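Build the 3D complex.
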Amino acid sequence: MIYRKALMLLAATSILAGTAGLAAAQDVTLTIESWRNDDLAIWQEQLIPAFEAQNPGIKVVFSPSAPTEYNAALNAKLDAGSAGDLITCRPFDASLELYNKSQLADLTDLPGMENFSDVAKSAWQTDDGSATFCVPMASVIHGFIYNKDAFEELGLQVPQTEDEFFAVLDKIKEDGNYIPLAMGTKDLWEAATMGYQNIGPNYWKGEEGRLALIKGEQKLTDPQWVDPFTTLARWKDYLGDGFEAQTYPDSQNLFTLGRAAIYPAGSWEISVFNTQVEFEMGAFPPPVKAAGDTCYISDHTDIGIGLNAKSPNAEAARTFLTWVASDEFAKIYANALPGFFSLSSQPVEMEDPLAREFVSWREKCEPTIRSTYQILSRGTPNLENETWTASANVINGTETPEAAAERLQEGLTSWYEPQQGN
Amino acid sequence: MTVQPASKKPIRWHIAVFLAPALLVYTVVMILPLFGTLQLSLFRGTPEAQVFVGLENFRTLLGDPRWSASFWNALWNNVWFFIIHMAVQNPIGILLAALLSNPRLRLRGFYRTAIFVPTILSFVIVGFVWKLILSPIWGVAPSLLDLVGLKSLFAPWLGKEEYALTTLGLISVWQFVGIPMMLIYAALLAIPDEILEAAEYDGITGMAQFWKIKLPLILPSIGIISVLTFVGNFNAFDLIYSSQGAMAGPNFSTDILGTFLYRTFFGFQLQIGDPNMGATIASMMFFIILAGVCLYLFGIQTRLRRYQF
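Done.
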């Protein structure tokens, strides 16, 4: 008894003595697994200090690995039990699989989750939407970035409708000083992501069409899914010489060097372009069919962050995740990385004008995510990958829009039950 | 006192001891994985466990319309890739070797080195450099053609379905032409001077000497080169992957068995990897290569006449 008392006394005095080393030893250290090694500086210099200042006793370490190795490395670490407390989540199936294996914890009731819309959470939910397992961090928005100087020089207005869009392209082509559209088909995904998924939501009415496709109520051969291909096929005449062998970096360079007037973009380009261009840039959302139509944009959920189910520091980790769901995090993150937008329902103040332009579309347009990402790319053939080839073929003119749509539908029907019924 | 029969040979342990390290390493890194792959191709993964399905995966690969379309497309592309090498790389290699073995040629060492250097370059570099050279935007190919007034011949070759694979085949030929050249060159040097002198006495010189004397003597080397080309081509992957990506565009026109295997085994983008089907494709590649090599060993090599000097 006396002995124990003495020990407690000793412990008490040592806490009172409060040496720095001892205090640190009682801190909880959280480790974040991530593929975003580009963001290391932002985490270390801005995000983590902001969090630690408010939460003494919790230390955070951001430990990223190479993007291409992330999924494999993370799976191995989780299986071995050596993964960090917080896991940066890829959207959809990759993370869902981790949740199903009970490697990601259920965060449905996490304080702060209410700040996100259903679309924002859809990338990290079970198919029925009953459980959410990652806090949405950022999305990327599709649209078109244009060279403002070139538009002024040629006296062009930002197009609102598709007809205006093609009229603008015609004028740029006629003038001959600029390549109207900076896009190539060599890397395939450019055609699908910057092309099909960029303009498509206006045709299939965003979430309405996307969900109907998942339920099996619409088919890829329906006009709203074929028409984007038909429009894409018209782009061919406005692309640069030899676009068939033009790669993604080629397209970026053509635009930033001022040789092309319009760049079909994803908002992640903003931070890259800002450092490279010497002209003023503007942006416009994908043009609608007729003036006054509701516009739809692809506001694609890209990064989330979840909790390792086996983390010994779950309490501290949940505190951190609640902070990630807060306005403060959103503001720092969105400003440090213009082009990666917070998914929070509350608008975030941003300084970058181009990023502000992109995010302003959320007010007037209906957001959706890329149609092929949820559920529909689970089987073989993989709808997303097939869409890459189909989009490139259609632009190259080697496959008609109808034939491409037919092929995609056939592939989807071959394994996806809801599409087999009718 | 009995005399031990001397006929019993001592076991020669040293042979086993000397063979062991290499055999062990080879078994661990080559033979076991090979059988592992073959075994994997006979199973199918379910959420619970791997289930034995016999040849079901092979039936899917060859019977399912989608799988078989991809497979035959990749196989045909691979055959075409091989044809290009056999028709272009090896004749050029032989020609270069014949030129280099000419004792009157100056700067032989320089040419030999210059032609051989691309072989030691990394595929990634070769793929990248050629992508730049042929780029319609920054490349030197369009401007060079323009210089000689042939700009109209230029096309974005790597982006056209009908040219992409042939272009890649020729890039690969450019990279590897040094290997047949070196092997043939060595074989040509090994021909004894007496034979050539005898031929000259008989009035066989110049081209006739090459066709009638040298070529028959280097045929075994050409055979070896053909087999090496065959194995190398049907295992090819790196060049296509580094210049066209795993989707082997445009429209899978450059998809060969190696890229098809990679996409299937490891998955790509949203496609999740399927190790069992991947192993099935790998096994098919193994069987194809095995069949090709056996055909050569038993069908051709045994008939080649060897000359002992």
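DSSP finds 13 helices and four strands in chain B.
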